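Collaborator request, handled under Task 6.
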Amino acid sequence: MKKLVSLLLALALMLGVFLPAMAEEVTIKVAAIETAYGAEMWTEVSEAFTAATGIKVDLVTDKNLEDVLSATMKAGEYPDVVHLATGRPAALTETLIKEHLLADITDVLAMTVPGEDKLVQDKIAGGFTASSLTNPYSDGKTYLAPMFYSPCGLFYHANLLTEKGWELPQTWDEMWTLGDKAAAEGIALFAYPTAGYFDAFFYALLYEVGGPEFFDKATTYAEGIWDTPEAKQAFDIVAKLATYTEKSVPANANNDNFLKNQQLILDNKAIFMPNGTWVIGEMKDAPRADGFAWGFTALPAVAEGGDRYSYTWFEQIWVPEEAANKDAAKQFVAFMYSDAAADIFAKTGAIQPIVGFADKLEGDNKLFFSIYDQGAKAALGAFAATDPVEGVNFADTVFGTVNSLVSGDKTVEQWVEQIKADSDLLRGALK
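C-alpha cells returned to the collaborator:
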C-alpha cells in the first residue's frame, strides 16, 4: 500500500511539473432586463458567448430587474454585466452613474470582437459612443455601451420625388429650394403629427449646428447657450420650416387627429414629416397615392459637406465598478457586437448598432436601420432631468410652441425668449 501511495504521489508531482496548469474556469454573472424582446435571446447569446470564449455565464433576466439588483447590491453582491438602460422610472442606472459606480469600459472599443478579427470600435455605427448616454462624465471615457436602437428621421414618399424629377435635399438650402418648387405645385414641404415629434428633430438639429459638445451644453441649460450663433442657426431653421409647413397641421396636431397629418404624406399634400419606424404600422391600412413607397432620410446638413444627423433611441449595457470579473465581463460586452450575437438578437426585432448589419434586414427595416451606414451620424440624448419648477414644462416650451409658430400666434422672438427664461430656471434645478 505504501508503495502504491508513493507511486501516485510521484505521478502527481510529475504531472505538476511536466503538464501546463489548467486555466482557472471563469463564470460571469450577467443581469438583463426582460422587455418585449423576451428573455430567450439572452440565453441563446450567453451560450454562443461561452462557445466562443469558454467563459461560462450565470444569467438572470427579469421584467423588474431593478428590484432584483437593488436587493443584491445592497448585500454587496454585484453582477459582472448589466443590460439596463437609462430613462426607466426606477432610474437605477442613473443612480449608479451619479455615484460613480460604473466601470470604465473605454478599452472595450479597442478589443477584438470574440470570434472575429474586427475591433469593436470598427463595428459600432458612427456617433453611438459620442454622447452623454455612453460617456456621462464628459471625460472622454466610455462607461455604457450602446445596444438595441430605433432610428428617427424624415419620412417621405420616395416615388413622388422621382416622378417630379426632384432631388432629395442634402442641405437646408436645397430643402428651401425644393419647398419653393413644391409650393408652385400646391404641395407643402413639411408636416408633422404633433408638435411633440419635434423632440427628435430638434435634438438632431442641435447636433448639426454645433456638434456633441454644443448639444451637451444646450441640454444641460448652460448659461448663455441660447445666445450663441449655433443656437440662432437652429432657431432660424425651425422658424423658416414653419413657413413651409402645411397650414392645416396645427389644428390636427393632437392625439385624436394626428393621423390626418401623417396622411398628408401619403396623399402627396406634403413631402416630409419627422417620425419613427412605428409610423409604418400606424399607416399600414391607410389609403395612399398610386405608387406610394416610403422614403427615410436624416436631416439635411446646415452646409454642404456638413454632418447629417438622425436621432435614435437606444438601450445600454455596462459593467459595475464592483464587478468581480471585469476582464471577462468586458469580453461579454465586446461579444455583443459580433455577427453571431446580432443575428440572435435580430430574430426578435432587437437590432444592434453595427455597421453594415442592415444589409441583412429586409423590406422597410433595411431602409430604416441602414441610415447610419449611409453617412448619417446618430444624435443621442435629451434635455437633462431637473427638480420640478412650478410653471415650467420645457418640452412644451421648445417643441409645443411650434404649433404657434406655424399658425402665426407667436413670433420667433417670443419663442426664443421663453426658452431662455425657462432654461435659466431649470439650470438652477438640475438634479
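The cover message to the collaborator said: "Residues 27-150+312-379 form a domain with the D-Maltodextrin-Binding Protein; domain 2 fold (CATH 3.40.190.10). The first strand starts at residue 27 and ends at 33. Please let us know whether this matches your experimental observations."
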